[in-house]
């Protein structure tokens, strides 16, 4: 297995066309007004190679907005577990979203293992695409160390001008490269060009907040009673947009939906959001996160404190989606800076 190969940019279409012969291929596509989304494509021409993070991250393919987990038939006294999956290639995943998928992998492989996620994941090939520059002012991928590739893909593409450098990371990646004879072993010139792209990135990408990577967790350890949460209490609309677009938010609800015959039906899993008022409501009408300040604090703690305690990893990938989408203009970088300022 060659570790690095190159692909002429003009041959990308040939590669994508070969892939669509055997499976669904999804990739970033322009939706207008500087919005992008992962959509099924049939040709390389449809793909936006330069894009800011898509409206929804690729998690929608690993954890669909809604899926059936069980179907039942009372007359037949039967209950069947359902596994919905589809073979596909996701092309063009940025390093922040690769990190998001790595986070979800850790959560759903933890006990009890989530077979719906694990089986679906095993059918999906991932092709990463490097950002040579910042997407926009909302990104904070450097401080969480996600601006460079760190695994989690089968192939990884870096734009070197006329060619892509392609890192083959898995046997599946090697199989994909073997589908069409358009890849060539990377020569010294291409390897040097890759090193120069990475060198340039080191000068472009800097910590985006006034806190160092290793100080983020201690900052959040001390921030439980911060006044910053009170400010967010006044501004947050509790719409749940920030959690829906987050690549590492995975909360869901389980809903039973009987059919009109009242004998058959299904149990569904549907995305949920900790930012909505009923999320933490329990029996007796108690709500242990009634205030928006508590819910906002919980969202941030679920990125910078709780997962570090449990998985030794920040669950903020720095994608900037929560800030980009928030109608109340609550910006993650500003929140972190406000906490840091208060803690001084
Ligand atoms: S997107 Fe903004 S307004 Fe909506 S819940 Fe999140 S922080 Fe609140
Ligand atoms: S918290 Fe915001 S910036 Fe961090 S991963 Fe989630 S959406 Fe992206």
Q: What is the element layout, followed by pairings?
A:
Layout: E1 4-8, H1 12-22, E2 24-32, E3 35-40, H2 59-62, E4 66-73, E5 78-81, E6 88-93, H3 95-109, H4 115-122, E7 124-129, E8 155-159, E9 163-168, H5 171-177, E10 183-185, H6 188-204, H7 213-221, H8 228-235, H9 241-244, E11 252-258, E12 264-271, E13 281-282, E14 286-287, H10 292-304, H11 306-311, H12 321-325, H13 332-343
Parallel strand pairs: 2-6, 6-7, 7-8
Antiparallel strand pairs: 1-9, 1-10, 2-3, 4-5, 4-12, 8-9, 11-12, 13-14
Helix pairs in contact: 8-10
Bound molecules: iron/sulfur cluster (2 copies).
The site of one iron/sulfur cluster has 13 residues, from helix 12.
